[in-house]
Amino acid sequence: MKVLILPDEGAAILRAADIVARTVAAQPKAVLGLATGGTMLPLYEELARRHREEGLSFAGVTSFNLDEYIGLAPDHPCSYHHYMEKAFFSHVDIDRARAHLPKGDAPDPQAASEAYEALIADAGGIDLQLLGIGQNGHIGFNEPTASLGSRTRIKTLTQSTRRANQRYFASFEDTPQYAITTGVATILESRKCLLIATGAAKARAVRQMVEGPVSAVCPASALQLHARATVVLDEEAAAELTLRDYYETVHPRGQDSVFD
Ligand code: GLP
Question: Which residues does the chain have with pLDDT short of 50?
Answer without folding.
Answer: none
